[in-house]
Amino acid sequence: MDKERKLIIAGNWKMNKTVAEALDLVNGLKRDLAQVKEIDIVVCPPFTALSEVSKAILDSNIRLGAQNMSEHNSGAFTGEIAAGMLKEFSVRYVILGHSERRQFQKESDALIAKKAAAAHTASLKPIVCVGELLEEREGGRTEKVIETQLKGSLAGLTKAQMEETIVAYEPVWAIGTGKTATPAQAQEVHAFIRKQLEKLFDEGVARRVRIQYGGSVKASNARELMGQPDVDGALVGGASLEIRSFSDIIKNSI
Ligand code: PEP
């Protein structure tokens, strides 16, 4: 696939996989995807598996991501994990503001912006998630919601930091539901996001930032979604939990 930006496809394993299961999965991916150079491949295991997965992917084309981090560097924040701790395991990416964290942990755009800044300070690349609820789409408010989330969650980033940030468009109604946005629906919002990045930063930044689509991506729909001009990769939940389904998504996107 001839793309303006290099595709980045990340698997968000969420709260799944013991260390042994994580190793089985990542070793299978390593084997199946060893020849892939055209796409940046990222896996985001739970914190408890980062150490072992990190060792398993040394000298491979798979990179490591985390699913969340604290906005603080250290201190009395029980249960939290700091960017510096992730760096110990050679983590390169961190998912921030996933809709599940926005919904269940009540994460706000302002908090996500602080986390994004802390990630950049530690040279981690944030994957900042935005996306509308079903009722917001049905009420014609998709663009307004995305605009507000982008403005709030990316507040304070420099242009250089924004270029090292990935945006994931994940319509909440498509996450884990089996309902995928059509390629045209995804492209429409991705183009809108790029226009907002131009307003918030500049045209060059907007042109270079990679925007992933997430929401029931699978091997059968990956190619068409990735073929859209402003879709630069995928954030994959359910289908990233098995070797075959995740590696087929990547192979079908080349
Ligand atoms: C996600 O949670 O980021 C996601 C896209 O999940 P799924 O692929 O299962 O819809």
The level of helicity is 40-55%
H/E element sequence: EHEHEHEHHEHHHEHHEHEH
Largest sheet: 8 strands, parallel, barrel
Distance between the termini: 5 Å
Strand order, biggest sheet?
1-2-3-4-5-6-7-8
**What overall geometry do the principal axes of the alpha carbons give?**
globular
Q: Average pLDDT across residues?
A: 97
Low confidence ranges: none
The count of β-strands is 8
Which structural class do the helices and strands define? alpha/beta
Bound molecules: phosphoenolpyruvate
Q: What is the radius of gyration?
A: 17 Å
Q: Provide a count of the helices.
A: 12
Strand percentage? 15-25%
How would you describe the overall organization of this protein?
With 254 residues, the protein is of the alpha/beta class. The protein contains twelve helices and eight strands. The protein has helices spanning 19-32, 47-56, 83-87, 99-104, 109-121, 134-138, 142-153, 159-163, 183-200, 203-208, 219-226, 243-253; strands spanning 7-12, 39-44, 62-66, 93-96, 125-130, 166-169, 210-214, 233-236. It has an eight-stranded parallel beta barrel, surrounded by seven helices. Helix 2 links the parallel strand 2 (39-44) and strand 3. The protein is globular, with a radius of gyration of 17 Å. The relative contact order is 0.16. The mean pLDDT is 97. The structure holds phosphoenolpyruvate. Phosphoenolpyruvate is lined by residues 12, 170, 175-176, 214-217, 235-239.
